[in-house]
Amino acid sequence: MENLKKDRIYHAAVYVRLSKEDGDKEESDSIVNQKELIRAYLEDKPDIEICGEWADDGYSGADFERPNFKRMIREIEAGRIDCVVVKDLSRFGRNFVEAGRYIDQIFPALGVRFIAVNDGFDSVNGRTSSDRILIPFKNLINDAYCRDISVKVRSQLETKRRKGDFIGSFAIYGYLKDPCDRHRLVVDEYAAGVVKDIFRWKLEGASQQRIADRLNDRGELSPMEYKRFCGMRYQSGFQVNSKARWTAVAVGRILRNELYIGTMVQGKRTTPNHKVKKTILKPSGEWVRVECSHEPVIDKEDFLAVGRLLLQDTRVAPKEETVYLLSGLVFCGDCGQNMVRNSVCRNGKTYVYYMCGNNRTNGRCSSHRVNGGQLEQSVLLALQQHIAQTVDMEQVLAYIDTLPYHQAEVEKADRQLIKKQEEAEKYNRLKISLYESLREGLVDKGEYLELKALYDGKLQAVQKIIVKLREEIEDLLQRRTGCASWIEQFKKYQNLTEMTRHIAVALIERIDVFEDCRIRIRFKYQDSYERALDMIESVGRFQPLPDFSGRKAAAPEKAAAAPGKEAFASGEETAGSGEDAIASGKEAM
């Protein structure tokens, strides 16, 4: 402190700071009040001349990387400032280590006088014995306060996330904050229409870059520019050009965002603590997901179909805007490799065929070559048949729901569950009684352990049965009410005459092509389809079922086979080989 003297003029910087957690006062008023208090204090200090005022409004005291604080430090280093005046130590900072480093090391080394008005501290007077204790203690208290506020804020934000409240600064493209409740999202009809176009084009086979080009050609504002157009003060570190344009990356973000199906996903990033501001990405399992938190823009089935498309290896046709009709859906039935689409010109005609990717690259598998046009036609016929069977199945399931059999099965399983729960309670009571017998000396420790192991084994077996019965009851209840959603996906295309890319990715999971040109098609919702089949077969063993497709109903003595899998395919349609199904590329050429 030897270089600090009272008989000289100091050039002072008035520094004020306010963070969002600093109370109920208006920010501008609080900043003004701090400045007025400091000016009033310096009025009778002829040795201090105010040379500048620096304010950080809305910045935490835990972080010393504040813009105006750093500007003030640069002025000090340039020699234009040699005194810093703050309202109190908490306005200077709430980081115990950093605040102490500036007050005890940096300012003394630079010959800077430091004054904290409300704390009665002026470094020109030197430090008393009480100052050596109180100043670090106050800084420690300020640090603890900041940490406590941080914990409370984090806890409050986590509670809001789990409630499904939106806590972001800006609503995502396609939504707006509700004017009556800033934690609730409402659909922005115009932007939502653009989002729907993006998903539709992707389902039709367009790549992300092609979609971005379409939007730019159409003159659509990018999400960043749209926010600014709506009057939002939005900034992003991703902007390169003066006016942001649609990019493949921006389109990809929209296609992957669950928020468009009404699921609020938040808490993806965090910071280690209140002092470290570097954000880190949390594992997806730790993200907070709340379904049905707001109105969806995109149908969930379309969103899932797009998600599968983004994982597939698809190819875009030359000079065309969309991928091939069956891109990413056709696989070799023997090695599992993707089938590659090729074309060849013979006698002025172009022939399209698919062949195994392994055969093309390394010859490790046979070609499995099949004619492209005939493959697409066979898939269309199989899809038409599957749709018709699914519609028939819905009528059978609706009829089953009217039968007393279904309710009787639920009641039977429920009675069994109650009985097993009573049995489990009995074994628990026996274990308690056994322990009391051990304490009273009626059985020795060896007998106790032997009987306890016996009861534990029986209890464990009963508990497994209880779990199984609960799953069975749940399955029975879902069979009654859970069929409509997936059947509706097929019913939408009852009058299908031509297959499009959208329909292919929405209804087909994969197509396997075997060496003999036999194809196997696995449709979507296979598990739901098979559960419905099991339900129909189970009821058919005891009750004749009507044939809604026009087929003759089975006789009572043969009801076990009706309608069953003879009436409905298993969900995996298999076409024959050779001339009955599809010709190979070699035959076609």
Largest sheet: 5 strands, mixed
Radius of gyration computed on alpha carbons: 37 Å
Oligomer: single chain
Helicity range of the residues?
40-55%
Q: Pairing-aware structural class of the strands and helices?
A: alpha/beta
Report mean pLDDT, rounded to a whole number. 80
What general outline do the C-alpha atoms trace? flat
Give a count of the beta strands, DSSP E runs of length 2 or more.
18
Please count the helical segments: 19
Question: Could you give the order of strands across the largest sheet?
Answer: 2-1-3-4-5
- What are the segments in which pLDDT stays under 50 over at least 5 consecutive residues? 23-28, 551-566, 576-589
Content of β-strand: 5-15%
Cα(first) to Cα(last) distance is: 96 Å
Supply the key terms.
589 residues; alpha/beta; five-stranded mixed sheet; 18 strands; disordered C terminus
Quick summary of this structure?
With 589 residues, the chain is an alpha/beta fold. It is built from 19 helices and 18 strands. 48% of the residues lie in helices and 15% in strands.
